[in-house]
Amino acid sequence: MHDLDVGGATRANSLEEHWMPFTGNRDFKINPRLVVKGEGMYYTDHKGGRVIDGSSALFCSPAGHARPEIADAVSAQLRENSYTPPFQLGHPGSFELARRVAGLLPEPLNHVFFVNSGSESIDTALKIAMAYHRANGQAQRLRFVSRERAYHGVNIGGVSLAGMVKNRETFPVTMPNVVTMRHTFTGKELFCDGQPQQDGVELANDLERHCQTYGGSTIAAVFVEPVAGSTGTLVPPVGYLERIREICDAHGILLVFDEVITGFGRLGAPFASQLFGVTPDICTMAKALTNGSIPMGAVAVRDEIYETVTDASPENAIEFFHGYTYSAHPAACAAGNAALEIYRSEALFDRAAELAPYFKDAMMSLRDHDLVTDIRTIGMMSGLEVAHDGVPGRRGQEMQKTLFWNGCHVKFTGDTAIVAPAFVAERAHIDEIVDKIRKTLDQAKG
Questions:
Q1: DSSP secondary structure letter of residue 46
Q2: Mean pLDDT of residues grouped by 10 in the chain (446 residues)?
Q3: Domains in the chain, ordered, with CATH?
Q4: Burial of 141 (C-beta count, 10 Å sphere; 0-12/13-18/19+)
Q5: CB 375 within 8 A of CB 363
Q6: How many CA atoms lie within 13 A of 287 on its CB side?
Q7: CA–CA separation, 437 vs 433, rounded Å?
Q8: Which of 3, 85, 136, 373 lies in the 20 to 30 Å Cα band around 356?
Q9: Residue 24 to residues 1, 27, 31, 75, 183: CA-CA distances in angstroms?
Q10: How far apart are CA 356 and CA 101, in angstroms?
Q11: Alpha helices, DSSP H, located in 137-226
Q12: For residue 416, what are the β-bridge partners?
């Protein structure tokens, strides 16, 4: 039992019953870090401390925390219609949200399938690819290509595509017929703002080699994070995504962009596909779709994919045997519509683009610290890599905890801090985040 200070009151609270995700449960429960309130750029911890959010939670909340517009929309929706079965029934909110999402995406990504998380969006994209090729008379396309250091969620499909060993080694029974390309971090260009200039086409040609080795006609889809997020902000080199698109077109392979992190303005454009000028066939998304307020994800597809799958089935038949009990939940759709209206009315994607140069300079100011081995930035996203202490990941884990008690939350993967502030941040907020990171680096060095 722990005595926790909550709003000035002290109460006993057992932490043992909750098995926490991606957390060292034993370590956490000795000295818990609990958030009792979020507002704007800040959290309040259970001891009453103020904690600036340097990672938009988990890259979910670009409009800041506890937006009343979203809370009001969800409350009104729950009072009016709290649940509609998504199979053979619908409700107006999902069609409106699909229209809004499609309006943010490049043509011809005009059809949107709703799910409940980024992980579900990946499994859905895998199924869409299989259904499309079967309907197209190419059912022999049973192979998928991903990358080293890739993260595509935690369902079995995403774990099968993953290229991060900790997300695979405990769960060895995964999908067959998945092959990986190299990741794009070569180490040749350190402290790089934006896209590295080297090796883009050469790295992308890994896909062509897979086509020559296995036969391009056996590959269903290639899954790529335009910027690899959870592994530490790995930005694609110049020419890389363009060459991947060329190879996919040459061999009839679907290109899937996993934009669960990069979608909804993180790079200063609505989606990374627009920033890089490369349009995928399928785009997955989640996180900022509802500003993190309610779990939700989505998969957008080209018109031709939707039409091929639906037209291949008999009239009045179910065309795609897939869905979730909570697909397009009314409350989640209400949150999504409210979030997208905030992004539009406050021009938050433009604001992210305008703030990005200041954010980049602030992050790069940390390059003089002895523990910092690399900083990679693009848009409102940065990976700050620190030297490990002999055991990879240990220093990063300790820094994340120390940073929290220094008044700042930042997501760490191993020894890399992933800094991604909300778009409502002011320059003073960026300065505060960077100052607290520097303080924590000094303590880690000492």
A1: T
A2: 53 83 94 97 97 98 98 98 97 98 98 98 98 97 96 93 81 91 93 94 98 97 96 95 98 98 98 98 98 98 98 94 98 98 98 98 98 97 95 94 98 96 98 98 89
A3: 33-63+347-445 (3.90.1150.10), 69-345 (3.40.640.10)
A4: buried
A5: yes
A6: 26
A7: 6
A8: 373
A9: 18, 5, 11, 35, 28
A10: 24
A11: 156-161, 200-210
A12: 385, 413
**pLDDT at site 2:** 61
The one-letter amino acid code at 413 reads T
Displacement of CA 178 from its chain's centroid (Å): 21
DSSP-assigned beta bridge partners for residue 377:
193, 382
* Strands in 23-92 per DSSP E: 35-39, 42-45, 50-53
Nearest Cα to Cα of residue 288 among 342, 327, 232, 214? 342
Contact between 437 and 429 under an 8 Å Cβ cutoff? The reply is no
Q: What is the C-alpha to C-alpha distance for residues 86 and 104, in angstroms, rounded to an integer?
A: 24
Q: How far is residue 238's CA from residue 90's CA, in Å, rounded to a whole number?
A: 43
Say whether 359 sits in a helix, a strand or coil: helix
For residues 351 and 237, the answer to whether their CB atoms sit within 8 Å is no
- What is the residue whose two structure tokens read 């000795």? 30
Query: Which residues, including other chains, have CB under 8 Å from residue 352's CB and lie 6 or more apart?
Result: 62, 265, 266, 267, 268, 379, 380, 423
Determine the Cα–Cα distance for residues 290 and 338; give it in Å rounded to an integer. 8
DSSP-assigned states of every residue in 285-305: E-GGGGTTSS--EEEEEEHHH
Residue 164: name the closest of 172, 152, 174, 176 by CA: 152
Q: β-strands 143-147, 178-181: how paired? A: parallel
Alpha carbons 363 and 54: distance in angstroms, whole number:
12
Report the C-alpha gap between 281 and 8 in whole angstroms. Answer: 52
pTM for the full model? 0.95
Please name the residue that has the structure tokens 């939700």.
296
The answer to whether residues 427 and 71 touch, using CB atoms and an 8 Å cutoff, is: no
Please give the full DSSP string across 243-274, using - where no structure is assigned.
HHHHHHHHHTPEEEEE-TTTTTTTTSSSSHHH
- Indicate the helix (H) or strand (E) that contains 343: helix 330-345
How high is the pLDDT of residue 301?
98
Name the residue among 171, 153, 144 with its Cα closest to residue 116: 153
The structure tokens listed for 81 are 């219609």
Grouping H, G, I as helix, E, B as strand and the rest as coil, residue 384 is: strand
Q: Is the dihedral of CA 210, 213, 217, 218 positive or negative?
A: negative
